[in-house]
């Protein structure tokens, strides 16, 4: 029996394409239609018809200004700039669909947990339980300065703050309101019973919160929790909190190592590593046959904006690549930015040595994930092999052309995988958490969300 593969679409609410800088300049790419609500509702319907788990919306706060010390490169190329808030898109698309999930990237570093919790509860209500939170800690110094900070907090401190943020959110979502709190009794005039509603009290090193949560419980209460940290501290955070983890590495060996690290960290944290879904970042270019797909790939590569790609990679790693010769080796160094991007090229697979030029050319189409091009059978073979050999549950699929890449996947690849019994033909009932295989809409009782919420008066050290 073949493994059932799972797909997420991976996009941003931005102008120039998410991980394909420069493609917006060439028809029929429609990435520049990101300001049009119909662009997003049409995409959501397309993905739902193809049984994607979710549309995963990435986000960053700040602009990519590490390359050359300014934002000029991303502004000229449209590389993830300009970019809008992803939250409103979920509400728009939820109204146009019935099953598709929506993963929203939001930073724990700059907003009060109460505000974040309220936003996610609202979306979970409006979508009838189809919302996920991709928890990020933000890695751009420009974002910290734009939000009134003198500088970016250190890498590990941002995760320490994120732990406190999640602890507060868990109490708000899981314990402030009992299941019996909402009465909605028109006859006796009682909407909510105060006897079943408790204030949250939390005081930590970085954050504090006290008061009654103003939102009644949503279908999932706690949204499905996604995470993508690849550093030692990021893995510890994912092991404690994540229900789904994204990994990204350019080689099979690197992806296999990243997945193993995730599952080992989860087991070490006392959780079932098989209860956590692992998705790898990928770009799939599929057409009627191998020749047509390879021709399409060659066209995309010729159209790529490598300066925009260099600016993105510099922002991800915190290394100003404009100061390096293209043939210099890309070496790992600790920075306060995102450490997993640089590790993907220099630590996860030591058998491959990358130059600066190699890495820029690579991320110009699909970011740091692999690119597979071929006919339906070729691509299906490749994805099944990667899933088996790297112990993956599914793939976080970026696009080279918006929305054409996803239309081709729906037209060519999904039917081939369904014919093999390796892809769903319909959605499971229930919330996003249930569609992903959980027995309940509520987060598992063994998860810290449930354990922490049992003590609403907990005071952090």
From TrEMBL:
Its EC number is 1.14.13.131. FMN binds at residues 59, 105, 155, 159, 231. It comes from the Bacteria. Keywords: Flavoprotein, FMN, Monooxygenase, Oxidoreductase. One of its GO terms (molecular function) is dimethyl sulfide monooxygenase activity. It is an enzyme of class 1 (oxidoreductase). Pfam families: Bac_luciferase. Residues 22-387 form the Luciferase-like domain. InterPro entries: Diverse_substr_monoxygenases, Luciferase-like_dom, Luciferase-like_sf, NTA_MOA. Belongs to the NtaA/SnaA/DszA monooxygenase family. PANTHER family: ALKANESULFONATE MONOOXYGENASE-RELATED, C2H2 FINGER DOMAIN TRANSCRIPTION FACTOR (EUROFUNG)-RELATED. This is Dimethyl-sulfide monooxygenase. It comes from Achromobacter deleyi. The lineage of its organism: Bacteria, Pseudomonadati, Pseudomonadota, Betaproteobacteria, Burkholderiales.
């Amino acid at each position: 029996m073949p493994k059932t593969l799972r797909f997420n679409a991976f996009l941003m609410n931005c102008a120039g394409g998410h991980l394909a800088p420069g493609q917006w300049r060439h028809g029929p790419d429609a990435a520049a239609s990101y300001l049009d609500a119909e662009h997003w509702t049409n995409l959501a319907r397309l993905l739902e018809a193809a049984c994607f788990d979710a549309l995963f919306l990435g986000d960053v706060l700040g602009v990519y200004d590490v390359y050359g010390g300014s934002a000029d490169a991303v502004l000229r190329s449209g590389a993830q700039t300009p970019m809008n808030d992803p939250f409103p898109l979920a509400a728009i698309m939820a109204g146009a669909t019935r099953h598709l999930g929506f993963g929203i990237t939001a930073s724990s570093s700059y907003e009060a947990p109460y505000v974040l919790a309220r936003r996610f509860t609202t979306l979970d209500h409006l979508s009838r339980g189809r919302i996920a939170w991709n928890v990020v800690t933000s890695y751009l110094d420009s974002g910290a300065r734009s939000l009134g900070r003198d500088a970016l907090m250190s890498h590990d401190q941002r995760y320490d703050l994120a732990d406190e943020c999640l602890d507060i959110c868990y109490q708000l979502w899981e314990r402030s309101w009992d299941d019996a709190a909402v009465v909605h009794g028109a006859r006796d005039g009682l909407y909510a019973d105060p006897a079943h509603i408790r204030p949250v009290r939390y005081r930590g090193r970085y954050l504090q919160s006290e008061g009654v949560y103003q939102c009644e419980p949503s279908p999932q209460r706690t949204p499905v929790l996604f995470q993508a940290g690849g550093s030692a501290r990021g893995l510890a955070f994912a092991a404690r909190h994540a229900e789904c983890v994204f990994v990204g590495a350019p080689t099979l060996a690197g992806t296999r190592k990243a997945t193993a690290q995730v599952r080992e960290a989860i087991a070490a944290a006392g959780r079932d590593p098989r209860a956590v879904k692992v998705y790898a970042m990928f770009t799939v270019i599929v057409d009627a046959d191998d020749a047509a797909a390879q021709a399409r790939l060659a066209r995309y590569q010729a159209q790529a904006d490598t300066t925009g790609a260099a600016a993105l990679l510099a922002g991800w790693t915190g290394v100003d690549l404009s100061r390096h010769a293209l043939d210099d080796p890309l070496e790992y160094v600790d920075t306060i930015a995102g450490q997993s991007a640089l590790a993907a090229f220099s630590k996860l697979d030591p058998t491959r040595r990358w130059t600066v030029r190699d890495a820029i050319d690579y991320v110009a189409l699909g970011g740091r994930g692999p690119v597979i091009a071929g006919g339906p059978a070729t691509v299906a073979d490749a994805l099944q092999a990667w899933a088996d050999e790297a112990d993956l549950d599914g793939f976080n699929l970026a696009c080279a052309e918006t929305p054409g890449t996803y239309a081709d996947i729906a037209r060519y690849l999904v039917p081939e995988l369904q014919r093999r019994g390796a892809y769903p033909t319909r959605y499971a009932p229930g919330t996003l958490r249930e569609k992903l295989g959980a027995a309940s809409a509520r987060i598992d009782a063994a998860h810290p969300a449930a354990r922490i919420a049992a003590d609403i008066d907990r005071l952090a050290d």
